[in-house]
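Exam review. A common question shows you a sequence with its structure tokens and asks you to describe the fold in words. Practice with the pair below. Do the first one on your own.
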Amino acid sequence: MGKLHHEIKIDAPVTKVWRVLADLEAVQNYNPAVAKAHCTSPVKQGVGASRHCDLKPKGWVRERVTVWEPERAVGLEVTESEWPIVFMRWRTDVQPDGSGTLVKQDFEYQLKFGLLGNLMDALMMRRKLNQGLNDIFASMKQYIEYGELKTPQAAVTTS
């Protein structure tokens, strides 16, 4: 199983950061890999809410909320995709940090194909996922702070 950790400080209050994270369709505004997102469940927030994301340049993914702690944490998991994964899930926590917000995310995944999947992860997937998450965090910071996307240049801490 692969595990990644990312964190970034966003110069905005927790309430503003949470508003973006709590809007499941807003992911299309800050995730460079998402072309379009829409809710697929009757509820748009809370545990059990779900979304469908069309990806760039092609593909799709369906995700479901598994953790919902208003202004504290949201967790999601992939429920369907074209990716060679057994599972993919993450929890994003927000906490006040001076006049801004510290956003932390723990991300777990497992590829299909047993030993071959482990080799693919070591040679390529872990690095690609890590870079993709860095880009998402930098874009989210830009979107929340400035309301628009520019070239991501935020400092993201990873492990």
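Now try the second one, then compare your answer with the model answer below.
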Amino acid sequence: MIKVLIVDDSRVAQEFLAHILASDPSVQVAGVANNGEEALKMVREKRPDVITMDIHMPGMDGFEVTRAIMETLPTPIVMVSASSTATEVASSFRMLEAGALALILRPPGIGQPGHEAAARELILTVKLMSEIKVIRRIRPAARGTSGPAAQPAAEIQLAAIGASTGGPPALLKILSALPRDLAAPLLIVQHIAAGFTAGFVEWLGGASRFPVHIAAQGELPLPGHAYVAPDGLHMGVSCGPRIELSDQAPENGLRPSVNHLFRSAARVLGPRAVGVLLTGMGRDGAEELKTMKDKGAVTIAQDEASSIVHGMPGEAIKLGAATYILPPEGIASMLAGLIDKANGRNK
């Protein structure tokens, strides 16, 4: 039985979420908190397996409560957003910075279009996040695998990056540490709930001060810019390299998928690309990172200590797909050094 604590200052929202969650026999609503102070008390008393968290509350808001919980009794937290407006999304991503694991829209009302699918997604998200063991950790300094540093075989034309659970804060650390005159573009696939991509791009660009855009079909990506796959479309590259979007079938239930991006980069660019696989559940991107490496690309996987979930990068490491294993700060330093070296810069 998965014990869930609902944190929301709206009685209507509390009852609605409780109704949805209680519809699954493996989920038990262990308690309901009306504000942040109550939430902290109930976390200590109830020891829930997962928390659904509202953003805007009187007194301690969702950000402050999330940070306090993760500093004292780390518990998986799912942010339940009332809308995908820019203001709401910006607030939501602050929660991910504070330690929340996932972000999801509150399902529409009973009888409204999309209610059943959204309710199933909420229940599935709660179940998946309850399995993640979140702990307070001292993050290690940047480190790489043993052996000599890889030498780029050719001019690097882009870096392909894949991420899922825990990806937004990892991406923020990487982009914040990259030089603004980076000599290659970044293409990013981040698994995220539909409707949040535009807000994610706005938040990531504003918080990192690195130019971030939603990718467009046929676009020629610019050096020193990052491009995020749009909702519901795979992102790859064609000769140029240019961005290529497609509505091909989901891979492992995912569209966009990291697999698609990495496979495309391996086929079109070979050693002229860098592959980076960050924190996330499942295996998306692991085998195709190995394909990139086999084609001569330098490949990087996030280390376990800095990953919220080491599923995706861990699977890649097991396959021998990673040239380097690094935390986000080390990934940024490695990317900058590799791209500068391959593109003839000396900094």
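Model answer, second protein: Confidence is low (pLDDT under 50) at residues 137-149. The longest strand covers residues 27-33. Full marks require stating both points clearly.
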